[in-house]
Amino acid sequence: MNTPDGQTTPPAAPCDVLGHVSSDRSDTDSGSVDGLRRRFQTRLLAGLSGAWAWGSSSVLMSDPEWAAGNHRSAEQSIEPGTESHASATSLRDERALAQADPAYRIRLPHDHGPRPTFRTEWWYITGWFQPAGPSQATLPNTAAANALGIQLTFFRTAPRTAINNPSRLAPTQLLFAHVALAQRQRGLLLHDQIARRVGLADTRLASADTSGAFELRIGAWQLARRSNGEWHANIRTRQLALECKFSPTQDEWLQGRNGFSRKGPRSDQASHYITLPHLTSQVRLATADDQRAQTLQGITWMDHEWSSTVLDERAAGWDWVGLHGRDGSALMAFRIRPRSEADTRRPATGGSAQASNADIWQHAQMRHADGRLQTWRSVRVEALSHWTSPRTGTRYPVAFRLHLDDDVFELEALMPDQELDSR
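The structure assignment produced for this chain is given below.
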């Protein structure tokens, strides 16, 4: 791997992690390397992002790390057994949105399902795959020519619309989703997307039952959780057909403090956040240019987040990474970046992490295979090399050093061209 000035980095240790990384920006500041204590090298499904507009607010979204929560809006009923734990103020004709609450305790398996009283929610799935072989549980070899990255996200948003609109077509809830495949042989992402309002004949947003089973459907796109804990996703578009099964191998990981994940200095800048790492996964894939169905196996990372508050007004965006360890460990880290140095200040104490002078908020934690949690205080991302898109002229970082206190992780994209322009 080469640095921007052409110097080769020292050899890294054998690949001990698989990772998934996202950023909503096109460049990352470089910095010096210090305190090198541990080195890892991995190839990533990286740089997936899209632009979405909600009402009068335009929000950049990739691995959304800024919004989510769990409460009750004034005009909506709550399914049986769901308590209210929010105080929400309502405008005369607008819905009142629930807010993430540090006192709320995630209720599993019920909270795997939709939380429609919150503004924003997503189920984010990303994984590494190879053609099926005799072993179903080992991490794929990311250096192999046939390695494949898949990213799939289903979103739900409750727009600020009048609650007394009697129309069956009133946009009370909006559903949208996107999918991206990263294949080294193809050299660029194959991606697609869909959007619908709830109430149309080909949409479904069903609350979870007591077993946690539910279904979300947007046309020919479906995400479902079965009562046995398995997740299934099916997608059919003109470009591709995907049939996916994701099977848990570990307990849920509640991010932050019991699932309450801070994203900024204000208490409402937070999400409720559940991670399912190390999902054993099977996929059948066919594409328009190769209609022979492939059977693939791999390991998948899944996040479910919900909230009603977006980033701090001083924030420019975020960087996020999730890493799978071969020993069963998992690591998640993110940073919320300011628009300028003048927008930086340390957050109030008591949050899940203390931001450095360069960031509005940070968090980094590893769950070891035995369940122990290890938390870092400092997150820094250093770009090592870049790629410039011939289509948009945008410059993207494609290799990174992730500095967590004195620990250093080296991350390299599976392939440089992973631009996802969803305009």
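Interim note for the steering committee: Confidence is low (pLDDT under 50) at residues 1-16, 26-92, 346-356. The longest strand covers residues 270-287.
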